[in-house]
Design a protein that fits this description.
The protein is mainly beta. The protein is built from 2 helices and 18 strands. The strands form 3 sheets. Strands 1-2-4-5-8-9-10-11-14-15-18 form an 11-stranded antiparallel β-sheet, with no helix packed on it. A 4-stranded antiparallel β-sheet has the order 12-13-16-17, with no helix packed on it. Strand 10 and strand 11 form a beta hairpin.
Length: 328
């Protein structure tokens, strides 16, 4: 009688206003040295799919669910939350810039961000009545975390054209950066807008609060030597980043968080301007034939740290491209 295909319309409405101040200050200590400070607030709305006011209900009669329902069948499902608020961030940036020559610069930047209302998992029991029958459901839903997360770090950057070198060597230059990022403080959401295994309760039991925020490497290095003189332009670019959290939840058993292991890639390009309007070139991607490796988190604890095991390897191949550019 309960599962008769009925549809019940429900409306969820949320209104919010944010005041997002921004302050930028610059102090010129000399012609070569200046300081910058920035403070600003920002917001990031939740993914639209997570705010759907929708619950697809079907009864589950396995023994585990009957025991959880005190002898009565219950259902498990994932529902959206139309009352999700945007993630808020308070951002502080400070940098020192030293222009030590006409074509040379050395910069140090420090940043700190505090994150509020980060999306995480919530579980609640809710009763649904239809056609004279009432059953309880265990609902997994996204909620705004009450915890406060943080991102902190610094970046060092160097750029110079060595125009003091004799002759054709004066076109040599180098651009290099190093970035350090540390994040902590938030148990991240393992929900998916489309994966049915979430609704079935198939989720990892890893404590995600012990993991860094997704997509952030602790160490990142970029080295770009280049040559720019007359019609000729040559550039090499090597980018390396340390291990980072690729996703908080895999879509296959055991539905564990997945890391992308440290990886680096070398690209190169050479261009020559035949005329002011015609340019030919050659580009090479992944010259070192870097293999992307991932690992899955088996367990995470404050005492033992994060335990991982190898998961997959991907060969990206080298790629070469010839280019002709015509400008009108």
């Amino acid at each position: 009688a309960f599962a008769n295909g009925a549809i019940e319309e429900r409306t969820g409405e949320l209104t919010y206003d944010y005041f997002l101040p921004s302050v930028n200050l610059r102090a010129e200590l000399s012609d070569q040295l200046q300081l910058r400070f920035a403070w600003y607030n920002g917001i990031a709305p939740p993914e639209f799919g997570l705010t759907r006011n929708f619950a697809n209900i079907s009864l589950a009669a396995n023994q585990e669910d009957i025991e959880a329902g005190n002898g009565r069948p219950i259902f498990r499902t994932t529902v959206g939350n139309p009352f999700l608020r945007p993630i808020e961030s308070n951002n502080f940036d400070f940098s020192v810039e030293w222009y030590f020559s006409r074509v040379g610069q050395l910069t140090g930047a420090f940043f700190y961000k505090r994150l509020h209302n980060v999306l995480t998992n919530g579980v609640e029991r809710r009763s649904f009545t239809n056609n004279g029958a009432t059953f309880e459901g265990i609902l997994t839903t996204p909620v705004n975390s009450e915890e406060t997360g943080s991102i902190r770090g610094f970046e060092l950057a160097y750029q110079q054209v060595y125009d003091f070198l004799p002759g054709f060597l004066s076109g040599l230059g180098l651009n290099a950066t190093y970035t350090f990022v540390d994040s902590s403080g938030v148990s991240q959401s393992t929900l998916s807008e489309t994966d049915p295994d979430v609704s079935a309760g198939n989720q990892s039991n890893v404590d995600t609060s012990l993991l860094p925020l997704q997509g952030l490497s602790r160490h990142t290095i970029n080295l770009t030597p280049f040559y720019e003189r007359g019609p000729l332009s040559i550039r090499f670019a090597y980018s390396w980043r340390s291990r980072f959290l690729l996703t908080i939840r895999d879509v296959i058993v055991p539905f564990a968080p997945i890391y992308n292991e440290s990886t680096g890639q070398l690209d190169a390009s050479i261009f020559y301007s035949i005329t002011p309007h015609i340019r030919i070139g050659f580009q090479a991607v992944n010259l070192l034939n870097e293999i992307t490796r991932t690992s899955q988190v088996i367990d995470a604890s404050e005492s033992d740290g994060v335990l991982r095991a190898p998961r997959s390897w991907f060969m990206n191949d080298r790629r070469f491209t010839g280019i002709l550019r015509v400008t009108f």
